[in-house]
Amino acid sequence: MKINSVSVRNFRNLSEQKIKFAPLLNVICGKNAQGKTNLLEAIYFATIGKSPRTHKDIETIGFGKKNASINLVYQRGGVEHSLDIQMGTSEKKTVLVDGNKTIKLSDIVGQFGSVYFSPDELKLVQGSPGFRRRFIDIINCQLEKQYLKDLRTNQKLLNQRNNLLRQKPVNLKNQLSVWDELLAKNSAKIAMARLRFIEKLQQYAKQIHFDLSNGNEELTINYKGICDKENASEQDFIDAWNTGVQKSLEKDMVLGYSNFGVHCDDFVLKFNGLDLRKNGSQGQQRTATLALKLAEMEILKDEYGEYPVLLLDDVLSELDLLRREKLVNYFKNIQCILTCTEFDLGLNCKIFHMENGLITE
Ligand SMILES: Nc1ncnc2c1ncn2[C@@H]1O[C@H](COP(=O)(O)OP(=O)(O)O)[C@@H](O)[C@H]1O
Ligand SMILES: [Mg+2]
Prior knowledge:
By secondary structure, this protein is an alpha/beta fold. The protein contains 9 helices and 15 strands. Strand 6 (about 95) and strand 7 (about 100-105) form a beta hairpin.
């Protein structure tokens, strides 16, 4: 996967412009708050149909502007394709593929692949379970179309269940049982997909982490979800869901929302058997985050048949020399767009300068 060009209009602070990228390493230098991250955000927007930073599209439209657009021209399997995203403060977001075909927003996933990595991603290790679920979900949606549908169904069913818990009708338990039967099945499907994904993630991440830590550390990733039975079947997940929900019913009724389910799922990262979140140093946590992101790249490569574009936002300055060199090894043969305040890697690359929302070569 390679980006030929990106054109933006009214996207955050970026001036209207078209940027042509080189096939391998592209470096965007600039002082703080010039628009470097905004540009990578625009590119990632074309990957998943929304911003990695906010779920409110409106926040990405330039201050005082009514609408914005992103146009991405890229190569996949040697063929040129384009994606056009239009959004406005009052109209619905639309996506156009190859200049003429309008597609559903959910179908943007799986067209163009990229991996976005910024220092913020340390939240994958340090942050709340929500960050880790989001990580799994975003990648898994690119692997399995059905997964996105199941997630949306889960959200709807859960909202219905929570509404009932809040409203407390007299026949609450009867009414809940209707939703619970559907939720149990739907949750089992999501849990199975997450389990499959984590197994894949673990395979790659373990190997990469071993390399990044010079063979000193073994990374393991354990799914912590509604069922901890080994080799659990779909029925095991359904049973575990039913048991868990029964246990939390009293609490749910008191609090007025669901306290058990796949919306509370998490995964635990361990190095050499120790909990990375509690016992890992900053450096170890950074290495693991990097390993997870590089594993994401490998997983997407298996899916797309070619490597996604790597977007590295200000991450080099945070890595020590050894890890920097290792990281460079991972992207030396793929297209990478890297932002920094100062660049001193001494690598062959196309250099851009970002100032006040405008890029110059
Ligand atoms: N919706 C928006 N419209 C216009 N400017 C915005 C918008 N959102 C953020 N900005 C501006 O973008 C700038 C930050 O850009 P950013 O890409 O994060 O900088 P950096 O070069 O440090 O990565 C800030 O000046 C901020 O005010
Ligand atoms: Mg930035």
